[in-house]
Write a structure and sequence with these properties.
The chain is of the alpha/beta class. It has 17 helices and 20 strands. Strands 1, 2, 3, 4, 5, 6 and 17 form a seven-stranded mixed sheet that branches. A five-stranded parallel sheet has the order 7-16-8-9-12, with helices on one face. It has a three-stranded antiparallel sheet with strand order 13-14-15, with no helix packed on it. The two termini are 45 Å apart.
């Protein structure tokens, strides 16, 4: 049933880190704002990903908001890498502290968004039949929010329950004394597998492609570390915003080939002990020099052989033909050690593919596996999935699916030509998943707030990217990626290759968070060059494509 239209200055879709900060910043401008969240709680990714072992792979002191010093001083993290429950508690604390819940509507799934050229406003519709009208549409829909369950013959015949890691039940899943099958060995799987193995009668891990997994080296927060961070937060935040990756993890400025083999080995060992994603900062060229990367990859394979007792299992867990970090690097605790347990079996489904789901479990080309519970850790329709699901309709009745039929095209990862007043947060063409997401989110939301403030003060009706600026930026993003080893590893969700029918196009910006922030700041300072205001009147923009590219670092500064 269609309901009466509700009017706001801005609608924010999503209530994770990006959504609640958007509500805060836009409300600070004096705008009427309504956040629409599909879930029955705020938190976004950290609300839905409740699987056992879920935690962040960026240090908790870094993976937090910088906009309020009082907030960062008063909040106390309990671990080096915060767990999902603690991150969700933090997000809820922020919402309460700044009284944001009054402007966020839960259990509201957006089903459509259409721009009216007659009114210069967006009409947002929901599955429940609600209709909202807003001048601005801020899409804080999340880059890893649309869970992907592979189309598997026979799944409907399975006698037991099945779950996806990205939509885990609130009350958890009972696996004690049960035979459990986990399909997938990506980031979520590597975190949950050790914990599931501790409870299950038997755990079967169905692996098609092994990935590199680093030890998290997590530990309880050290009081002296917390004190030092809080005393130097201003400097640390400034460093993070100007860094390549948006955080304070130490990067080695040297290239791998300017040191000896002994020095490289020592650095790899140091990075292994530091844990998490630190291996990707071992040398500045680890993702551009194949030889350096190969040596790092072999170092990790040697670690796997040292840890896993059975040589055949160790080899099956060792990635081959894959540059380290060109698929999302995983971080976990006791992942490889888990395969030494007598109640854990690795099923190599690359050699013996899954043929179908049967009532009692999984049938592969090599035989049947009887399981009571199935867990899909098969990832997401990453970066564009939520936007593709809503499929906004812009000028001339062109929808986003048509505009992105050959792959996503944005200007700065923030705006799309032909979709006025629609802002995408942490979207394709921005550092996004190649960064500390909270840093990138704050940079994006602050830029949107600056843009909206300019619009309101100048009495502007619409703003949107020009096709030329969008084409130049999209090509620039692609050119940077082509200079890295990512260009040789296209079978990953960075390219959208995990989603059937999706164009295989590299989506994140690999030029570095600092360079990116410098560029978007310059765009705003130049009167929002590359965008047009009102009635199609182009803003003056005399810069050439070469000049636009020189405003960012032409050399990629990449992170997995």
């Amino acid at each position: 049933m269609i309901q009466d239209k509700q009017y706001f200055d801005a609608i924010v879709v999503g209530a994770g880190f990006a959504g609640i900060y958007s509500v805060y910043r836009l409300r600070e401008l004096g705008l009427s704002v309504r956040g629409l969240e599909a879930g029955d709680g705020i938190g976004g990714t950290w609300y839905h990903n409740r699987y056992p072992g879920a935690r962040c792979d960026i240090e908790s002191l870094d993976y937090s908001y910088a906009f309020s010093d009082e907030l960062q001083q008063e909040w106390r993290w309990t671990e080096r890498y915060a767990s999902q429950p603690e991150i969700l508690e933090y997000i809820n604390h922020v919402a309460d502290r700044f009284d944001l819940r009054q402007d966020i509507q839960l259990n509201t799934r957006v089903s459509g968004a259409t721009f009216s050229e007659a009114e210069d406003r967006w009409t947002i519709t929901t599955e429940a039949g609600e209709v909202f009208s807003a001048k601005y549409a801020v899409m804080a829909t999340g880059v890893l929010s649309v869970a992907q369950v592979p189309s598997m013959t026979g799944l409907e015949s399975f006698d037991g329950p099945w779950y996806h890691s990205g939509d885990w039940p609130k009350g958890g899943v009972e696996v004690a004394g049960k035979r459990v099958g986990v399909i997938g060995t990506g980031s979520s799987a590597t975190q949950m597998i050790p914990l599931l193995a501790e409870e299950a009668e038997h755990l079967y891990v169905f692996q098609r492609t092994p990935n590199f997994t680093m030890p998290a080296q997590n530990y309880a927060m050290k009081p002296e570390v917390e004190r030092e961070w809080k005393a130097s937060y201003a400097e640390r935040r400034k460093f993070a915003w100007a860094s390549n990756f948006g955080h304070n993890q130490v990067s080695n400025p040297k290239s791998g080939k300017e040191v000896t083999s002994e020095e490289r080995l020592a650095e790899f060992e140091n990075r292994w002990e530091l844990g998490g994603l630190y291996m990707m900062r071992a040398f500045k060229d680890i993702l551009t020099d194949a030889d350096v990367n190969d040596e790092a990859a072999e170092f990790v394979r040697e670690k796997i052989r040292d840890i896993v007792a059975d040589p055949q299992t160790a080899e099956a867990l060792s990635p081959r033909g894959l540059y380290l970090g060109t698929k999302r690097l995983c971080s976990g605790t006791n992942y490889y050690e888990t395969f030494n347990r007598s109640n854990v079996t690795l099923a190599n489904v690359k050699d013996a593919p899954i043929e179908r789901v049967i009532p009692s479990g999984i049938r592969t080309a090599g035989g049947d596996y009887e399981v009571d519970v199935l867990v899909f850790a098969t990832g997401f329709d990453a970066m564009t999935g939520a936007m593709r699901r809503i499929n906004p309709v812009g000028r001339n009745s062109v929808n986003l699916a048509e505009a992105w039929s050959a792959g996503p095209r944005t200007y700065l990862g923030l705006t799309v030509a032909g979709f006025p007043n629609m802002f995408i947060l942490a979207g394709p063409g921005s550092p996004s998943v190649f960064s500390n997401m909270v840093t990138s989110i704050e940079q994006h939301v602050d830029w949107v707030a600056t843009c909206v403030a300019h619009m309101e003060s100048e009495g502007r009706s619409t703003i949107e990217a020009t096709v030329e600026a969008q084409d130049n930026w999209t090509e620039h993003v692609s050119d940077l990626a082509s200079k890295t080893l990512y260009a040789h590893s296209r079978n990953s969700w960075f390219y959208g290759a995990n989603t059937p029918g999706k164009p295989v196009v590299f989506m994140p910006y690999v030029g570095g968070v600092g360079n990116y922030h410098k560029r978007i700041t310059e765009v705003a300072a130049a009167g929002f060059e590359g965008l047009r205001f009102d009635a199609g009147q182009l803003q003056p923009n005399t810069s050439t494509r070469a000049e636009q590219e020189s405003a960012t670092d032409p050399e990629p500064s990449v992170v997995a």
